[in-house]
Amino acid sequence: MTATPRSRRLRTLAAALVTTAALSLTACQTGTADATGVVDSTQPPAPGTESAEKQSPATGTDSDTSGASNDSNDSGSSGNSVNSGGSGKEATQVADRKTAKKTTSCTAKGTKVTVTDAPRPINHLLIKATNTSDTTCHLYYAPYLRFDQAQSAVPFIEESKPQAVVTLEPGESGYAGVLTSTPDGSHPYDATSLTLYYAARSGQGSTGAPSHPALPFDSVRIDSSNAVTYWQTSAADALMW
């Protein structure tokens, strides 16, 4: 059948209307399409690239700010800790050096020695050595004693040896007990003088000048049982032997 010009115009107009309607329908759709191509208008649109980019800088800024703050705090705390520790260590070392320089052996030059009669036990003398200097000193071993012009020093009582060297701060005292005689002793004589020597740190001989303390009486009976204790920190300890 041959189409007339009128019928062709009608078909063209109908096709244009269908195309216009399809375009309008597409423009009005706001939903998302599923795998079948069907659009569901109840689902929100997926976030775009712009939304993600807007969140990134904010997150990045918070992270950087927090990091800078932590670094600053950590650095400050670490610095203070190191400086404080260093200062404390240096102060301790200086104090140790000063203490070491001011410690010496006790000698007659910096001590005052007195000798008294002990009421108990009988036939005992108590020697007291007081540090009169401004320097800490050590009383090593036992005092070397010599009554009158004796050829040898009084023997030490080995059982009285303390666990540590007696150290005297300025004003402090150390003690030693002296057994003068016993009923079983031999070769008794009456001594009228006493010389005290300070033992050297090495244990070999004496150090410094001797002391010459006065005896409590005009004379003291001495015999072969005569002995002296090691230096002690208390009078009670010195008189236990």
UniProtKB/TrEMBL annotation:
<feature type="compositionally biased region" description="Low complexity">
    <location>
        <begin position="102"/>
        <end position="111"/>
    </location>
</feature>
<dbReference type="InterPro" id="IPR025326">
    <property type="entry name" value="DUF4232"/>
</dbReference>
<keyword id="KW-0732">Signal</keyword>
<protein>
    <recommendedName>
        <fullName>DUF4232 domain-containing protein</fullName>
    </recommendedName>
</protein>
<feature type="signal peptide">
    <location>
        <begin position="1"/>
        <end position="27"/>
    </location>
</feature>
<feature type="compositionally biased region" description="Polar residues">
    <location>
        <begin position="32"/>
        <end position="43"/>
    </location>
</feature>
<dbReference type="Pfam" id="PF14016">
    <property type="entry name" value="DUF4232"/>
</dbReference>
<feature type="compositionally biased region" description="Low complexity">
    <location>
        <begin position="59"/>
        <end position="84"/>
    </location>
</feature>
<feature type="domain" description="DUF4232">
    <location>
        <begin position="106"/>
        <end position="232"/>
    </location>
</feature>
<feature type="region of interest" description="Disordered">
    <location>
        <begin position="32"/>
        <end position="111"/>
    </location>
</feature>
